[in-house]
Amino acid sequence: MTSASGVLAGTTVGAVNGLTARWAGAASGGTVFSAVGVWPLLAFLADGAGGAARGELAEAMGLPAEEAAAAGRELMGALGGMRGLDSALGLWTKRTLELREAWAKGLPAQTHGVLTGDEGADRDALDAWAVQRTGGLIERMPVVLTPDTELVLASALAMRTQWLRPFEEWPVMPQAGPWRGRTFLGLRRSSVLLDRVGMAETREGCLTELKVLGSTGIDVHLLLGEERMTPGQVLGAGVGILEGTHSVVSGPQLPYGDVGPGVRVEKVRRMRPLPPTLDVTTVAYDMTAHHDLLELHRMFGLTTARDTSRGHFPGISGFPLAIGSARQSTMAKFGALGFRAAAVTAIAARPGCAPPEPRYVTTTIGARFDRPFGFLAVHRRSRLVLAAGWVTDPKPYREDEGY
Description:
Layout: H1 10-25, E1 31-33, H2 35-48, H3 51-61, H4 68-80, E2 85-94, H5 101-105, E3 112-115, H6 119-133, E4 151-162, E5 168-172, E6 184-191, E7 197-202, E8 205-212, E9 218-225, H7 231-243, E10 248-250, E11 257-260, E12 263-270, E13 277-283, E14 285-292, E15 321-334, E16 338-351, E17 360-368, E18 373-379, E19 384-391
Parallel strand pairs: 2-3, 13-17
Antiparallel strand pairs: 1-19, 2-4, 4-16, 5-6, 6-13, 7-8, 7-10, 8-9, 9-18, 11-12, 12-17, 14-15, 15-16, 18-19
Helix pairs in contact: 1-7, 2-3, 2-4
């Protein structure tokens, strides 16, 4: 929820980030997902749910059901006020479906559209909404439309940010690990801001965090764990850092040597006196993912709500409704100049990264992200995770692209 100053409350941030951490625990392979795209939909469903479905949705949200609608509205309002982020919520129903006035009034204004029953026309309209609301980053609404689809509730997010300091493109050829023998489009830069990198000790292992700051207040945190750590453990630990669960030793306090995953601190000789530097090497990536949320129905509180033998949302309509489809389409692109990501989530209800001898010595921190790693796109002020992912297939380096 938001305070009078417009700052998103810690309870809501914690609830959404908690869902991010749980979803990360189920992640495998290269992926990108957005819990903040799902959470408000669960909130509005919980507000109109009854029985066991109401309790399950509240548990998935991490807030009482009676607070759901207000929290959903305030989250959508806060997202709408974030620079570099476009967000929207949409609702489409059949003309014959009568909505409870109290529930409909609880949704953000100008969200309600109509399902005509013409599957082709409805599909075109929903796809056009996804394209418009994400600036073309997502081209199709991830929903299964059937003749008996009564209601579609969807959210769209699109985020763009330019790096405060861009990277230089360069081929990267890992010498060890799962990416050995391949050549990727690498990104390199040097900075005197040593605190952009840090190390955290967690129960699952040691984690390296690198913050790449964006111009709109949206940053991307790159996360490299020990090789034995799973994607869920790495991303979960990254969320733990945001929540203050894990303390971080920042770059200026790191000892000399190989101090953690991908990080080495050493004294180097220079031709002229220079301040300590942070040298970063990572890779560019451009990825998409599609998620069927019903495959993780317990996590999202949709177990009972799938049962089509009866209705579960008496607060939405007197007509019995059950969840027939719940999906999310996402994308993320990390390059030399900035970051873009988008997510569209839809729930449908149906019935039921040898010169001369130098004279000077300085400290250099080298950070290399040249094996699979995670990332969190984070709103700097609120520490809300907007998108998360795991990089397994970076962009290849092509000779015709140059350096």
